[in-house]
Design the sequence.
């Protein structure tokens, strides 16, 4: 009788331990949360070239918890409330989770935008800009998605670097 009572107690504990182990393993199998957040873009540096074209270093930021492949960028650029042109690229760039990378996009700006940039550089003052458009990206193991982008900021002349705004 005594052995039977001990056996029942151990059987109950073994069953409870098995259930706890199964629940723990089930919790581990789900892995980290796969969160896809809207990416962002901003101009890190704008260089006015001798031929009048601009070179924009566009910083693309991936706020997702998973890697994303950035396939296309199509952003309208305004400087000082004046349409400058479009920043278009097909970078084919993979950016890790919660990371960023920079691509260079050239632009032949509108005349009024050229004047606004030249004025800001000559006066040593900042130049306000706006980006609107979309970025096409594919989340890791997902489908291609188009993300809307709206960004307003300003660039200032870089000391010692003629024609460069940061």
Sequence:
């Amino acid at each position: 009788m005594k052995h039977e009572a001990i056996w029942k107690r151990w059987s109950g504990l073994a069953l409870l331990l098995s259930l706890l182990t199964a629940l723990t393993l089930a919790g581990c199998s789900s892995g980290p949360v796969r969160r896809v957040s809207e990416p962002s873009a901003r101009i890190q540096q704008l260089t006015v070239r001798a031929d009048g074209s601009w070179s924009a270093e566009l910083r693309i930021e991936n706020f997702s918890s998973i890697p994303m492949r950035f396939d296309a960028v199509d952003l309208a650029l305004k400087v000082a409330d004046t349409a400058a042109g479009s920043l278009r690229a097909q970078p084919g760039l993979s950016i890790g989770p919660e990371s960023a990378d920079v691509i260079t996009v050239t632009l032949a700006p509108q005349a009024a935008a050229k004047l606004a940039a030249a004025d800001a550089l000559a006066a040593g003052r900042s130049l306000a800009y706006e980006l609107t458009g979309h970025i096409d990206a594919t989340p890791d193991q997902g489908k291609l998605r188009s993300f809307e982008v709206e960004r307003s900021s300003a660039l200032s002349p870089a000391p010692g670097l003629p024609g460069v705004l940061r």
The first helix runs from residue 2 to 29. The mean pLDDT is 90. Helices lie at 2-29, 111-123.
